[in-house]
Amino acid sequence: MLVRVVRGCRSSLTTLLLTTVATLVGLFAPNFYRDHPVLLPQIYGQDLLTLVVGVPALAVSLYYADRGSLRGYDVWLGVTGYLLYTYSSYAFMTAFNELYLVYVALLWLTLFTFVGGMVRLDAATLKRDLSGTSVRPYVAFQLSLAVLVSLLWLSEILPATLAGTTPPAIAEAGLPTAVIYSLDLGIIVPGFALTASWLRNRRAWGYAFTAVLLVKIATLGGAVLAMIVFMILDGQVVPLPQILIFGTLTAVSLVLMGRFLVAIDPESDPVRAGTS
Q1: 19, exposed or middle or buried, with CB in 10 Å at 0-12, 13-18, 19+?
Q2: Residues 214-272: pLDDT tens digits?
Q3: For residues 239 and 152, is the Cβ–Cβ distance under 8 A?
Q4: What whole-number distance in Å separates Cα of residue 232 and Cα of residue 241?
Q5: How confident is the model at residue 1 (pLDDT cuts 50, 70, 90)?
């Protein structure tokens, strides 16, 4: 199995190194970020979660994936997806700083690893392992997330569009546009909807993307909660319903992720034959 996963292993090891450097510098170098003050707590929260959860999770899952664990492989891809999302936003939205090229490198590395890993994933084996598991909770959760994220962002975008103004979140941060709107509405929401549809029809790739998205949402949810903590410490007002919603979504994603991973046969091979 070492031979089969070694390409992803090399890029992931580089990702681990660069991510560790980027987060440590971001967290501990004085006045490193040049972004608007309202954004800084969010960036620090993201860096902290990535350092204390994302990096160890990637290292451990890579270890097990490289030894033939389908569970480890799924988590590895999910954490890679989280880092792809994270450093896409850093590369496109964070104010230019000395780590800009590192963000671009991480964007490329995680994209390369994620696509290559998904192509080689044995989705049919994953479907077989979960054949006795009800898909309804996973379908409902992903559709609910798609609806909630859409409503959250459209509630800011549509009023501003109709009024010919800029959404307050963009104006307050001094941004020309919101990269997060684009990533979520252009990629994440359609991804949830399509995956839920595939899973409802018990298509193999529905199981594959569900596994990856559950890990991604669990880590991203943790990052959002870390951002909220930093925002509160900074004196910003965070509505209680928002805290409860993100806390609940993160908890539910962790429970569903755990159930999904436990259902996978520990002996299952993660990589399709002929793709090594």
Answers
A1: buried
A2: 999 999 899 999 999 999 998 888 888 888 888 998 999 999 999 999 999 998 888 86
A3: no
A4: 14
A5: very low
212: left (phi over 0), alpha (psi -120 to 50) or beta: alpha
> What is the three-class DSSP state of 118?
helix
Alpha helices in the chain (DSSP H): 2-28, 40-49, 55-65, 70-93, 100-120, 123-129, 136-163, 168-173, 179-183, 189-200, 204-233, 240-262
**Residue 181 CA to chain centroid, in angstroms?**
15
Residue bearing tokens 């963000």: 103
> Rounded to two decimals, what is the model's pTM?
0.93
Which whole number is the average pLDDT over 139-155? Answer: 94
Query: 176 by DSSP, 3-state: which?
Result: coil
Print burial letters for 132-160: b (CB count within 10 Å at least 16), e (below 16): eeebeebbebbbebbeebbeebeebbeee
As a whole number of angstroms, the distance between CA 248 and CA 145 comes to 12
What does the block give as tokens for 187?
Answer: 């990629």
Phi-psi region of 114 (alpha: psi -120 to 50; beta: other; left: phi over 0): alpha
Count of CB atoms situated within 10 Å of the CB of 3: 8
Distance CA 117, CA 155 (A): 35
Is the pLDDT at 276 greater than 80, yes or no? no
Count of C-beta atoms within a 10 Å radius of residue 26: 21
Q: Where are the domains of the chain?
A: 2-262
Question: Cβ atoms within 10 A of the Cβ of 237, count?
Answer: 7
CA 127 from centre of chain: 22
